[in-house]
């Protein structure tokens, strides 16, 4: 069997399973597994596949047909135009989280002094790693990424190695601030914010393949914000700021949680669907 025929088998299977772009996904899976450029498939269609190649490919096609997300099969997901390793212990980075990177890049545009960043609930490390890669060109950045999940931390460290930042970012286990020692200029967090009662209604791909600990924010989805707002003052420099992602319709409640703890809202950013998605706070003077 050649590349073309095998990919056709994959495409037909995915189409039967109602996957939206069966041809695209079949070619993509084949090219990722065999480490060939996506477009090479078109020029190499007549090449013969080995039995091992075919069996690896078909196993992955079956997983895709069963609803496993492409990212979790390939083991990588793009965030801010870079690849990040993912697995079943990490939340797949989402495009709306990129708003945090854009905001911080703009906010510190004219800054010359070094910057200390803390990422709470770092997961794949996509936020803090992207910030380092974007900001380090101009200023000296240091920082910590913490998570309660040892398995997620393994992936964050792998991503730091992949992006050549192993010796720059400290990743360690912490229940929010429990093991954090220093003060920071910027504290970022995309905490779990789905209400417990809504978990069952999430799309299958999310519910089955993103870890519950990365999704569930307690009975009203706001517990992590309460925990963070409660302790943040101690870990934030006087003129520092906090940047958190929030879920749909949570923004006014999250503002209240932080304002009660003597923070002021600096800005609220909307995502592409006009949902208030990221809130920035600073110390109330
Ligand atoms: C929504 S995910 C965000 C992951 C990543 N920062 C991103 O934006 O893609 C939330 C992360 O918070 C972590 N987490 C949940 N509870 C935590 C806690 N009590 N302390 C620290 N991290 C926690 C989860 O393990 C998960 O990695």
Molecular structure report:
- With 285 residues, the chain is of the alpha/beta class.
- The chain folds into two domains: 3-67; 75-283, 3-Layer(aba) Sandwich (Rossmann fold).
- The chain contains eleven helices and nine strands.
- It has a seven-stranded mixed beta sheet with strand order 5-4-3-6-7-9-8, sandwiched between helices. The chain has a two-stranded antiparallel ribbon with strand order 1-2.
- Strand 3 (115-120), helix 7 and strand 4 (141-147) form a beta-alpha-beta unit.
- Helix 1 packs across helix 2 and helix 6 packs parallel to helix 7 (126-135).
- The structure holds S-adenosylmethionine.
- Residues 91, 93, 97, 121-124, 126-127, 146-149, 152, 174-176, 190-192, 213-214 line the site of S-adenosylmethionine.
What brief labels describe this structure?
9 strands; two-stranded antiparallel sheet; alpha/beta; 2 domains; 285 residues
What topology does this entry show?
Elements: H1 3-16, H2 22-33, H3 40-44, H4 51-65, H5 70-74, E1 76-79, E2 82-85, H6 98-107, E3 115-120, H7 126-135, E4 141-147, H8 150-162, E5 169-173, E6 184-189, H9 204-209, H10 223-235, E7 236-245, H11 251-260, E8 263-270, E9 276-283
Parallel strand pairs: 3-4, 3-6, 4-5, 6-7
Antiparallel strand pairs: 1-2, 7-9, 8-9
Helix pairs in contact: 1-2, 1-4, 2-4, 6-7
The protein binds S-adenosylmethionine (SAM).
The site of S-adenosylmethionine (SAM) has 22 residues, from helix 7 and strand 4.
